[in-house]
Amino acid sequence: MKKLFSLLGAILLLTAGFSYAQERTGELNGTVVDDTAVPLPGVTVEARSPSLIGIGVTVTNEAGRYRLIKLPPGNYTITFKLPGFNTLRREGILIRLGSAVRINAEISPVTVEEEITIIGQSPLVDIRKSSSTFEITKEMFSKLPKGRNFSSVVTSISGVNDESELEGISMDGASSSENVFFIDGVDTTGMYDGTSGQRVMFEFIEEVQVKSSGYEAQFGGSMGGVINVVTRSGGNEFHGEVLLYSMSDKLNGESRPTLRRALYDSSSFEYIAYPEDDWNRYEVGFALGGYLIKDKLWFFGAYLPRFELTKRTTYFEPDVEIQKQFTMSEQWHHASFKLTYQPISALRLSASWNT
What we know:
Structural class: mainly beta
Low-confidence stretches: 7-21
Distance between the termini: 35 Å
Number of helices: 2
């Protein structure tokens, strides 16, 4: 029994180290001073966001510096409090995947305490890191041309090209087999071709991060780019949606004619428009997120099956009156489920499943 517990402990440590190494959160830091630029120790700094379970809290040190780590990507409100000083509230602070946002604050002493609110976006440039990083949020998905898989939006970034023949993407001149893919901290890179081994629909994704150069040593297995995906989670409010997506050959234009040698006269050529298949594709499903225990246990679940029907009419030579229709029906079942649990303020656990 002792050996069994030792083995389970070793597996837990290895798994924890692996998950910790992947970027799934952001960071907030800065310095708090008074109106004479003197650093203020003991200032309570609170971070609130719909994407964060509970409240992130820290206190400035003797140099007035503070640091909040492991913050899930999202829109934050930061509050600075110290007895005898104005309470300062900063709203609209955007924390992105893998970013370190610096927010400095100045609060002044008052005889009657009041609260000051500043609404503004956080800086988009992280001066502490040398990596070339681009984040694509779920709000941006609806504004970008894309396919159904998350990798289709990556080509909108400078230096990233589609390698359609290899079913992959090229970053900064590297081949498609030299990239690394992570989904919720798990490496899903295909062992043989270097493409993503997991297809995640856009409706299941919170944010996609792309690193094309200058990234950290923890991604040393990549010579091209690093694509990091974080799936959606629940919250302290219930939210749901019905998902519908449809495509058809009726939405395509006329096929372009092709020049070929005439079948019964080898000395002449002709233009012919080959008949196309009749096909319909539709996806219908749902998504639901919320909480099982408020400020403790969140959940998100989604199911989006895809159905495709293709019909092909074939004419048999030389009697064109003889024809037959062939039909092919295909199905794909896409689903995502995620649990986020925070038993204590210093520990956050999550488990996700995608198919």
